[in-house]
UniProtKB/TrEMBL annotation:
<dbReference type="InterPro" id="IPR020845">
    <property type="entry name" value="AMP-binding_CS"/>
</dbReference>
<dbReference type="Pfam" id="PF13193">
    <property type="entry name" value="AMP-binding_C"/>
</dbReference>
<feature type="domain" description="AMP-dependent synthetase/ligase">
    <location>
        <begin position="10"/>
        <end position="346"/>
    </location>
</feature>
<dbReference type="InterPro" id="IPR025110">
    <property type="entry name" value="AMP-bd_C"/>
</dbReference>
<feature type="domain" description="AMP-binding enzyme C-terminal">
    <location>
        <begin position="397"/>
        <end position="471"/>
    </location>
</feature>
<dbReference type="InterPro" id="IPR000873">
    <property type="entry name" value="AMP-dep_synth/lig_dom"/>
</dbReference>
<comment type="similarity">
    <text>Belongs to the ATP-dependent AMP-binding enzyme family.</text>
</comment>
<protein>
    <submittedName>
        <fullName>Acyl-CoA synthetase</fullName>
    </submittedName>
</protein>
<dbReference type="InterPro" id="IPR045851">
    <property type="entry name" value="AMP-bd_C_sf"/>
</dbReference>
<dbReference type="GO" id="GO:0031956">
    <property type="term" value="F:medium-chain fatty acid-CoA ligase activity"/>
</dbReference>
<dbReference type="InterPro" id="IPR042099">
    <property type="entry name" value="ANL_N_sf"/>
</dbReference>
<dbReference type="Pfam" id="PF00501">
    <property type="entry name" value="AMP-binding"/>
</dbReference>
<dbReference type="GO" id="GO:0006631">
    <property type="term" value="P:fatty acid metabolic process"/>
</dbReference>
């Protein structure tokens, strides 16, 4: 018999499994509700199901049920646009859609048979689960270079990542996780909902994130929080002014940031106010988690730690040769391999073949490796590696430097063509109050880093374009 993804559902410990502001389920109740839906799905053998992934307990029950039944689920962002949704539905061909009761669906999903998820069910034996290579979830990428691609995640990718995080973060059944992340993405759904359930712990979802709501849960027994940099930026701004908030966040066992780089300045502000050092990790849809700062290791701002248990990582140069040594300066592309990897891009054998080389996945992320093995991400190969004046420059370190200037609230750095330099560095700035002088920002970066890393152009914006996970959409910045 194949390994169960959630052994605690059968053991049914006497504790809350999942809670949202409006509903909560203990393990016995979750096993009954998810088990009943799983038996129904297994009997219907629908092939694939779409999941209208609202931030609700119904979404959580639905994904657990689909995993128990061995039916691949396709989480769909409730804010998705018509064209992108049409592509996902035609590409994945779900036989039905799982929703919370009364959800209003867009036309492409409304045309499918619909099953509303109930929070009750008659207890019964849980279905036998498929083997570890069976598809579990199909998560669609953001589609920055064309239509979104369906990342087929097998069951072993989920179990291996969550078990590696158990090791790295000393994650146990006693932990209570709080977060307010979306549930259509790896971070919020796999790490934030499935992670606690695999450990036999508890998760408290805020429905919608607020600093006050997260602090209330941490003060009331929650031990861990997951968030994205935009959330931690808000926390950094509020804990320095509010001792009660600072105390609540200071009481956490672990604060984890992911989905994008957390600026060093925000790390420092949170630590100064709370005593907490935020842990960063690095992953993506195709690989789930690759590296992390360990709970028992040095929490070094600006780094994403070391490879997780079972994950191999390396840096390669532009010719594809492995970069030997760890000098903290040489930039290369991260390649990884391990049981955490996806199987394929759905219906895209060409795209799948393109991203693998001798079993290694080409992440497209550029990084340096410190002498002690810590990785520091400098940006995406396509958008964040700037080749200027013969130098390879990562956008991330310039962004961190800019954020240390008191006149800068937000910063993004891109490159644009330059006849002399090849590319010139462009800084996109959201001012903190009165607009700072451009030359002051240029000199600030040159002083903190080196002169060849200074911006040649500074452009001011009211806000940076971001996606639902808080990542800056640099392709939307007109160069």
């Amino acid at each position: 018999m194949a390994e169960r993804l959630f052994p605690a559902l059968a053991a049914a410990p006497a504790k809350n499994a999942i809670s949202f502001p409006e509903h909560a389920l203990d393990y016995t109740e979750l096993a009954a509700a998810a088990g009943a839906l799983a038996r129904e799905l297994k009997a219907a053998a629908p092939g694939r199901v779409a999941l209208w992934a609202t931030p609700s307990i119904h979404t959580s029950v639905a994904v657990v049920a689909a995993l128990i039944a061995g039916v691949p689920a396709v989480p769909v962002n409730p804010k998705i646009g018509e064209r992108e949704l049409g592509h996902i539905v035609s590409d994945s061909e779900p036989a039905l859609v799982l929703t919370e009761p009364g959800a209003k669906l867009p036309d492409a999903l409304a045309a499918l048979p619909r099953k509303e998820v109930e929070l009750t069910g008659v207890p019964g034996e849980l279905p036998e689960e498929p083997d570890e290579e069976a598809p579990a979830l199909i998560v669609y990428t953001s589609g920055t270079t064309g239509p979104p691609k369906g990342v087929v995640l097998p069951r072993r990718a989920i179990s291996s990542t969550l078990d590696a995080l158990e090791d790295a973060w000393q994650w146990t059944a006693d932990d209570v996780l709080v977060h307010g992340l979306p549930l259509f993405h790896v971070h919020g759904l796999i790490l934030g909902i499935l992670g606690p359930l695999r450990r036999g712990g508890s998760v408290r979802h805020l429905g919608k994130f607020s600093v006050e709501a997260a602090a209330k849960e941490l003060a009331g027994g929650a031990t861990m929080m997951f968030g994205v940099p935009t959330m931690y930026h808000r926390i950094a701004g509020e804990v320095s002014e509010n001792p009660a908030l600072a105390k609540a966040f200071g009481s956490a066992r672990l604060l984890v940031s992911g989905s994008a780089a957390l600026p060093v300045h925000d790390h420092q502000r949170i630590t100064a106010a709370t005593g907490q050092e935020v842990v960063e990790r690095y992953g993506m849809s195709e690989t789930l988690m690759n590296t992390s700062v360990r709970a028992d290791g040095e929490r070094r701002p600006g780094t994403v730690g070391v490879p997780l248990r079972g994950v191999e990582a390396r840096l390669v140069d532009e010719a594809g040769a492995e970069i030997e040594g760890s000098d903290g300066e040489t930039v290369g592309e991260i390649q990884v391999r391990g049981r955490n990897l996806f199987t394929e891009y759905l219906n895209r054998p060409d795209a799948t073949a393109e991203v693998f080389v001798d079993g290694w996945f080409r992440t497209g992320d550029m990084a340096v490796r410190e002498p002690d093995g810590y990785y520091r991400i400098v940006g995406r190969k396509a958008t964040d590696l700037i080749k200027s004046g013969g130098y390879k420059i990562g956008a991330g370190e310039i962004e961190n430097a800019l954020l240390e200037h008191p006149g800068v609230a937000e910063a993004a750095v891109t490159g644009e063509p330059d006849e002399d330099l090849g590319e010139r560095i462009v800084a996109w700035i959201v001012p903190a109050g009165e607009r700072p002088a451009e030359q002051d920002l240029v000199d600030h970066v040159a002083r903190l880093l080196t002169p060849h890393k200074r911006p040649r152009v500074v452009r001011f914006l009211a806000a940076l374009p971001r996606n639902d996970m808080g990542k800056v959409m640099k392709r939307a910045l007109d160069g």
